[in-house]
Design a protein that fits this description.
α11 runs antiparallel to α13. It is built from 13 helices and ten strands. A hairpin with a 4-residue loop joins β4 and β5. The protein is globular. It has a seven-stranded antiparallel sheet with strand order 1-8-9-10-6-7-2. The mean pLDDT is about 95. By secondary structure, it is α+β, with helices and mostly antiparallel strands. Bound molecules: protoporphyrin IX containing FE. The site of protoporphyrin IX containing FE (HEM) has 24 residues, from β6, β7, α7, β8 and β10.
Length: about 300
């Protein structure tokens, strides 16, 4: 059995941070990363889906064909990239998918949703660590019409469902020209040429699910950061995202893999600690506030200075 990888895509390349179109070609073209956290995170996704189905999965009518395309795409990425962990046998539309990591066998008729226990996007999402969103392209715009979202960074799928690209991004303190440039770029993404980018934020407490619906569980901790607990409690949160065109429906699949590292762990790498320090010192107040780190920015800066 293939060993699962430890991975942390540190996103800061410069000593300051500003919003940009940081999409790069995805090489190799696989949106799915299996990491050492696989078992824990897939179990956590399934727990959240069982306990909070109303906030973790939504699909508007008319998205089933695109959802099946996601199944086709991801199953093939899994069996091609991780043949020791996943297998597929298919006779025509009769598929047998095996997840060897979890020792699960799933048989279904491809394209017939009545042969799956849940909707196709929800089903495939239960085998990977990534959150999966479907952006439908019509009227020269992109609309969020389906998604499985278990580990949101303080946004709600229930609230955003049906919204277009600019509406989804309204809270982001960037300028409209940049947002429009990115939207235009996404409208032209071609099948077979996926893209990737990283996004980062910080929060307090080691949890992946930062749903606004559960804000009372994780929000107040930001006011309890002290010089004693800053290293363990404050998390640097990285989202590795991919954008992939589905040629049949012309929809976009948007995947998000979330990684956490505490500030203490991160500071063991002097280059990362130095970059994060410079970025935090120079980050505009509006961006710091949007990323939710105003309340404890000074404590993190001070800690990183103590480590140098
Ligand atoms: C196409 C699918 C995409 C979806 C569904 C999506 C969704 C979101 C959502 C829900 C947020 C949080 C907004 C809030 O605060 O409520 C967000 C933030 C953001 N998005 Fe996107 N996004 C997409 C693509 C992109 C792309 C391609 C880029 C850049 C090239 C981008 C850049 C950003 C940035 C910079 C933020 C602010 C993050 C921060 O400062 O922490 N997004 N996005």
């Amino acid at each position: 059995m293939m060993a699962l990888q430890q991975r942390f895509p540190f996103p800061l390349e410069e000593n300051s941070y500003f919003y940009s179109n940081n999409l790069k070609p995805l090489q190799p073209p696989c949106c799915i990363q299996l990491t050492t956290e696989y078992f824990h995170e897939v179990a956590e996704k399934r727990r959240l889906l069982a306990n909070h189905p109303e906030r973790c999965f939504h699909a508007l009518p008319g998205t089933l064909a695109a959802q099946w395309e996601v199944v086709d795409e991801i199953v093939h990425q899994l069996v091609d990239t991780y043949p020791d962990c996943f297998t597929l046998e298919n006779r025509g539309d009769e598929w047998t998918f095996r997840n060897l990591l979890l020792n699960e066998t799933e048989q279904f008729t491809f394209g017939d949703s009545s042969t799956l226990p849940v909707q196709p996007l929800d089903w495939i999402g239960r085998h990977v660590q990534e959150d999966l969103l479907l952006m439908v392209q019509r009227d020269d715009d992109l609309h969020l019409e389906a998604g499985q979202l278990c580990f949101p960074s303080a946004w709600s799928l229930t609230f955003d469902l049906g919204m277009a690209f600019h509406e989804i991004h309204r809270p982001v303190p960037w300028n409209h020209e940049l947002a429009e440039k990115i939207r235009r770029f996404l409208l032209r993404v071609e099948a077979g040429k996926p893209w990737t980018r990283v996004n980062w934020a910080m929060h307090v407490g080691r949890r992946l699910d930062l749903s606004p619906e559960a804000f009372h569980e994780w929000g107040p901790a930001r006011y309890q950061v002290s010089s004693e607990n800053v290293a363990d409690e404050v998390q640097f949160r990285v989202e590795e995202q991919c954008v992939l065109r589905l040629p049949g429906s012309n929809a976009l699949l948007f995947s998000i893999h979330t990684y956490l590292k505490s500030v203490g762990e991160l500071s063991q790498n002097p280059d990362w600690a130095q970059k994060l320090h410079s970025v935090l010192v120079t980050l505009p107040e509006q961006v710091a506030a949007y990323k939710g780190l105003t309340a404890y920015r000074a404590q993190v800066i001070e800690y990183l200075e103590r480590c140098q």
